[in-house]
TrEMBL record:
It comes from the Archaea. Signal peptide: none annotated. SUPFAM superfamilies: Periplasmic binding protein-like II (SSF53850). It holds the Pfam family NMT1_3. Gene3D superfamilies: Periplasmic binding protein-like II (3.40.190.10). It comes from Halorientalis regularis. This is TRAP transporter solute receptor, TAXI family. The lineage of its organism: Archaea, Methanobacteriati, Methanobacteriota, Stenosarchaea group, Halobacteria.
Length: 339
């Protein structure tokens, strides 16, 4: 089922000028009405960006009206700014950012559009890691240590910095190092602890494998008392990762207790209905081959995965909701944005 929103109910982004930059073109046409879509995820060396290029290619090669351009971005917080400035049409965020948007917290206090959900990409368990001799815990981070809890601009950074605050790690020097250069920064003594992740709690991204091959990488555990505090905090999702499935680390506890995030693609509430519907329809029709092109996309071959871990704090775009209802995978606990 398709329909067009046209220009009815469009919301401008002028109120975002002070927070996210100038407003968009103001052409009077719904974003995406021309069939063009810019998709943003994270930096160019990440698994997310690679996955987005596969998704874009699959959609572009199998329809005649929608064209997707996958572009790198600074991360989830920056992606909302790109949506506001019409620099992105569909972007991934995670539950931490989604909660801040719903609670109208800075820097999302004055958003003049409603971010709405489209589909689920993956879940990531985020942890701190180091090449420093003897380090086994985030509690080893001390005064003056150079720490990069993911590059600045990402919502993941805020979440990790928040979690580190429970471990009394005050006094470290916050620096920003790209995922793909953390290993060399550690080997050169420029980075005491960086960030790592396990995709769906079971897969090592290529940049993490590169770090492991560059230095004697050590996974840093959160102390048990801190884990208990974080488990009681509604803004944090804690995960347990079985690290015995991995090899080659200088140190790794058998079970790594660390925060996790659910990453979903969102768009603007005024994004063109037909364009988003065609995007989802095309990707769905070709989902069986996604895992062959990128193993991390294999879970998308299961239709129910597309709405797994949807945010209760943000509604779905009407086109996405209609699509999932027609495919029989919709969850009635989710809400739908006004049409």
């Amino acid at each position: 089922m398709k329909r067009s929103l046209g220009t009815a109910g469009l919301v401008g982004a002028a109120g975002l000028a002070g927070c996210f930059g100038d407003d968009g073109s103001g052409s009077g046409e719904a974003p995406g009405a021309d069939g063009g879509m810019v998709m943003t995820t994270s930096t160019q060396t990440t698994a997310a960006y690679t996955m987005s290029t596969v998704i874009a290619n699959v959609v572009n090669q199998n329809n005649d009206t929608v064209n997707v351009q996958a572009q790198p971005s600074e991360g989830t917080n920056a992606n909302i700014g790109r949506l506001a400035r019409d620099e992105s049409d569909i972007a991934y965020i995670q539950n931490w950012t989604a909660s801040k948007i719903a609670n109208e917290e800075e820097p999302f206090k004055n958003l003049d559009f409603q971010p709405v959900q489209a589909f689920h990409l993956y879940d990531l368990a985020w942890f701190m890691c180091s090449a420093n001799d003897g380090w086994t815990s985030v509690g080893d981070i001390g005064q003056g240590d150079r720490i990069s809890p993911t590059p600045s601009g990402s919502g993941t950074a805020e979440m990790l910095e928040y979690a580190l605050g429970f471990a009394e790690t005050d006094g470290y020097e916050r620096i920003s190092i790209g995922y793909g250069t953390q290993g060399s920064a550690m080997s050169e003594g420029r980075l005491d602890a960086g960030a790592g992740t396990f995709v769906n709690l079971a897969v090592e991204p290529s940049w993490l494998q590169q770090m492991k091959s560059t230095v004697d990488l050590r996974l840093l555990q959160f102390p048990s008392d801190v884990v208990s505090e974080l488990e009681e905090d509604p803004s944090v999702i804690m995960s347990e990762v079985d690290t015995t499935q991995f090899e080659g680390y200088g140190y790794a506890p058998d079970t790594l207790n660390t925060p996790a995030l659910a990453y979903n693609f969102v768009t603007r509430d005024d994004f063109d209905y037909d364009t988003l519907y065609t995007f989802l329809e095309t990707l769905w029709a070709n989902r069986d081959g996604l895992g062959e092109q990128n193993a991390l996309l294999g879970k998308m071959e299961n239709g129910e995965f597309w709405i797994k871990n949807g945010y209760e704090t943000l509604p779905f775009h009407p086109a996405a909701a209609d699509f999932y209802k027609e495919k029989g995978v919709w969850n009635d606990e989710y809400t739908v944005a006004e049409q």
